[in-house]
Design goal:
Layout lengths: L7 E5 L4 H12 L3 E6 L2 H10 L8 E5 L5 H15 L4 E4 L14 H29 L2 E6 L11 H21 L4 E8 L5 H10 L3 H10 L9 H11 L11 E4 L7
Parallel strand pairs: 1-2, 1-4, 2-3, 4-5, 5-6, 6-7
Helix pairs in contact: 1-8, 3-4, 4-5
This protein binds nicotinamide-adenine-dinucleotide.
């Protein structure tokens, strides 16, 4: 018997990376999962790779979380195709790093639009169902960059915004049986961090080693590390926890 038997979990930006790892973990614990990502074909391909327990299903749905109609339509498709929605993980993300004086308005708007507006639109669409059934779990993805990171004024502002959003929804939605929490990952080895290495002109393995050496536990994180935290925070074992941000970062923010 899994913690997510009979549950439907939707994860945004889950065609790869952290989102895919989380979807796989929820499925391993019994959930039916919806992989939401920009490209429906990539989402469907990822859904086909999910290892399910008997009776569960995985679907891939094309969705731009930052566009209201697309976000709402995606949630409605999850409910129609999987029979409901119990957990929403707002994971979709992009980076457009630059120092402030070089950061364009487009870089600012895109990053805010995907992370912050995307989490707002998706959660607004999902809470209609959560409130009606008096049950729901939201897991937002923040970052250690929320605490400040050179070259990431847009991303840092969005990720700290996610923490305020999480706390506020904890207050507003708690009375309706809905828990809202966030995870702030440190360095997680994914395409996003590999792309950062390439942009900085650093070898990918060297970049991972540098980041491993920088934290107390002396390793980088993997999507499975975030998935383990998400699987706890969205479970009924965590029903007395809401509005919190859990740093899953190998201790890098301890000082
Ligand atoms: N990798 C890290 O070290 C790290 C650290 C802290 C936080 N995070 C956060 O974790 C989340 C996942 O990161 P990742 O490393 O797996 O990144 P990734 O680039 O590997 O995956 C991100 C996914 O989001 C999708 N996406 C982008 N814009 C979208 C949109 N508008 N609508 C729907 N999907 C969209 C992409 O297509 C991609 O599949 C992001 O929110 C990121 O900011 C990552």
């Amino acid at each position: 018997m899994g913690r997510y038997d009979g549950r439907v979990v939707a994860v945004t930006g889950a065609a790869r990376g952290i989102g895919f790892g989380c979807a796989q973990r929820f499925a391993a614990e019994g959930a039916s999962v919806a992989i939401l990502d920009l490209d429906e074909a990539a989402a469907a391909e990822a859904a086909a790779k999910i290892e399910l327990v008997d009776g569960a299903q995985a679907v891939g749905i094309g969705c731009n979380v930052g566009v209201a109609d697309s976000a709402t339509a995606a949630v409605e498709r999850v409910v129609a195709e999987l029979g409901g929605i119990h957990v929403l993980m707002n994971n979709a993300g992009v980076t457009r790093d630059n120092l402030l004086f070089k950061m364009t308005e487009e870089d600012w708007d895109l990053v805010m639009g995907v992370h912050l507006k995307g989490a707002f639109l998706m959660t607004k669409a999902a809470q209609v169902h959560f409130v009606a059934q008096k049950y729901g779990k939201v897991c937002n993805v923040s970052s250690i960059s929320a605490l400040g990171n050179r070259g990431q004024a847009n991303y840092s502002a969005a990720k700290m915004g996610i923490q305020g959003f999480t706390r506020t929804l904890g207050i507003e939605l708690g009375p309706f049986g809905i828990n809202v929490n966030a995870i702030a990952p440190g360095f997680i080895a994914t395409e996003m961090t590999d792309a950062t290495a390439r942009r900085l002109g650093v070898d990918v393995d060297e970049f991972r080693k540098m980041n491993a050496d920088a934290n107390p536990v002396k390793r980088v994180g993997f999507p499975e590390d975030i998935a383990a935290a998400a699987a706890f925070l969205c479970s009924d074992e965590a029903s007395y926890i809401t509005g919190q941000t859990l740093y899953v970062d190998g201790g890098i923010t301890l000082g």
